[in-house]
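In the design runs reported in the main text, the only information available to the sequence generator was the tokenized backbone. The following block is the verbatim input for one such run; it is reproduced so that readers can re-run the procedure and compare outputs position by position.
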């Protein structure tokens, strides 16, 4: 937990707060207070015990954090920048808790909100926005991660309904979810289905043990002849455009969230360096320590500028998918480096859960992999730069 002697300049070197509106700062401060009160005091234990704190989900709903960038159906209708600021503060607490908000809002709720029927929206979205219901998003498969076009899960018509068969892997929250959005190959192309998780033939099993994202849940899903009514399909989209649209929403939040983890690691290291004394001086007085801290400040401030500019573009309706890849690739990669470097300032003490940098670094290995690996985002950017696709 950062100490009071960290100056305003150390926290916000370029005065980026001056680029935010009063409403944006108020929302940011509200989420920060929630993280300080409900996540920071408990996260080491939750991480150690691999416990997802479902008990705080309704509190997140009451703050308007679930589906916060959506409008109607109990959703807060916040801007893209406000959603990003919330992701920033949540991941300063822990990546696993920010991931929950992303899976719930940017993936599951967005899919229903963008592509669902009015009945589907009214059935699921208000409860999900309130935190009374949890959703998950089933796209990745055991043999189809970076290449979702290779999915083998199928949906076939059977009389007036549908039957789903297949498997999904690394699906966040599936074992505690009430509803799953499942993407499957059909005779009509890839379609999305709204699947109550108590449907016969639907099984979710948590993947354990994990070294990353321990305060979250990731699962294998088995779909064994899951029968659904005709109106279970999301009618407003066909093909991979549907899941990719939702993935871009999640990727956008990640570029903000990763900087939250980096900022927390940096502030933890700075506070430690100011109070830890060696050779008669605080280690913050040593040149090599100052270089490490300055390098962290440089990348955090640049990463936040990238995220904020991207958010302004998104709010203006001018954001391209390849621009999201810029932020996701850069900010997660730099955040991992910052957290690892912050750990070195803490010395041996940094490998304990008393301090956050190593936990953040472990979590970010998961964040670096999901919603598009470094390699995938590099090739998305490479296609935009050269005009030549290097992958199918």
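Verbatim output:
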């Amino acid at each position: 937990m950062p100490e009071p002697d960290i100056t305003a300049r150390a926290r916000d070197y370029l005065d980026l707060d001056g680029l935010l509106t009063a409403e944006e700062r108020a929302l940011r401060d509200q989420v920060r207070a929630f993280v300080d009160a409900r996540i920071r005091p408990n996260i080491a234990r939750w991480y150690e015990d691999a416990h997802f704190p479902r008990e705080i989900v309704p509190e997140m709903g009451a703050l308007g954090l679930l589906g916060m960038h959506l409008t109607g159906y109990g959703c807060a209708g916040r801007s893209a920048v406000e959603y990003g600021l919330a992701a920033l503060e949540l991941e300063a607490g822990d990546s696993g808790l920010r991931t929950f908000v992303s899976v719930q809002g940017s993936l599951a709720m967005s899919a229903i909100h963008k592509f669902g029927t009015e009945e589907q929206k009214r059935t699921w979205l208000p409860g999900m926005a309130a935190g009374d219901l949890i959703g998950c998003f089933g796209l990745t498969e055991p043999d189809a991660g970076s290449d979702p076009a290779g999915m083998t899960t199928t949906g076939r018509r059977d009389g007036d309904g549908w039957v789903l068969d297949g498997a999904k892997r690394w699906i966040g929250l599936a074992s505690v979810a009430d509803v799953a959005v499942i993407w499957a190959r059909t005779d009509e192309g890839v379609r999305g289905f709204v699947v109550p998780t108590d449907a016969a033939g639907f099984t979710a099993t948590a993947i354990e043990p994990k070294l990353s994202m321990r305060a979250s849940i990731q699962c294998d899903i088995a779909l064994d002849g899951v029968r659904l009514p005709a109106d279970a399909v999301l009618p407003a989209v066909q093909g991979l455009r549907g899941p990719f649209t939702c993935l871009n929403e999640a990727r956008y939040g990640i570029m903000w969230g990763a900087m939250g983890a980096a900022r927390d690691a940096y502030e933890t290291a700075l506070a430690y360096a100011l109070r830890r004394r060696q050779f008669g001086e605080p280690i913050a007085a040593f040149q090599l320590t100052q270089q490490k801290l300055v390098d962290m400040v440089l990348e955090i401030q640049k990463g936040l500028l990238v995220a904020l500019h991207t958010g302004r573009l998104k709010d203006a309706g001018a954001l391209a998918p390849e621009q999201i890849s810029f932020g996701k690739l850069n900010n997660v990669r730099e955040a991992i480096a910052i957290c690892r470097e912050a750990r070195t300032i803490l010395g041996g003490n940094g490998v304990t859960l008393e301090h956050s940098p190593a936990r953040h670094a472990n979590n970010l290995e998961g964040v670096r992999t999901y919603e598009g690996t470094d390699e995938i985002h590099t090739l998305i950017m490479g296609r935009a730069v050269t005009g030549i696709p290097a992958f199918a």
